[in-house]
Model the fold of this input.
Amino acid sequence: MGKPLSGKVSVVTGGSRGLGREMVLALAEAGSDVVIASRKLEACEELASDVRAKTGQRALAVACNVGDWEQCETLAEVAYDEFGAVDVLVNNAGMSLLYPSLDQVSEAMFDKVIATNLKGPFRLSALIGARMAAAGGGSIVNISSIEAAHPEPLAVPYAAAKAGLEALTVGLAHTYGPSVRVNTIRCGPFDTDIAKAWPPQMRAELARHTALGRIGAPADITGAVLFLASDAAAYCTGATLALDGGFR
Done:
């Protein structure tokens, strides 16, 4: 059986660890060359080396803070200069900041959360989506969170940003359709680096809220991203896929 993304090029932000790392490896295993972007270049380079060794695909590491407009432009240019095309863009980079109360959220904190979770995906999607449309096709996958639909008191700016990202998905789908598809994966609780800081009772409580009775393993994201990135999702755009174990 052939590889569904053979000959394609994928860009993954926040790609050096956690869900991003899993998606990078899965995309490469499916035949795609990959551009791995995050703020920490060394971590991206280590993963790029792993990708080459494990899959034989080309892999490029790029340092990028997606909250910076100019760095988004540089990432897009470097990807096109190196590979000549981008077929898949995964806007995975995200972050939330802890705060004691909403009135203690500073303007700088708020701006940082919005920049990483919403501003960056907007700018990258505008830059790369337009070139995808001009080239005749592509897929953009935005990584959201159940916070977009179930905002918690300790993550209100993050929830607002992710809700905005889901609205952006629909707008981009209509802007760059019919040739470019744009979809969202709305993630539930996953056992990534962030989860290491969870107290045991929090892990158990989150698992209790899912129909599957557990939090997600990082590898649980790969099937969804490969579906949306590939021709298997040829009639799927502007959609939000809940990948949350049946969370409620």
The chain has seven helices and seven strands.
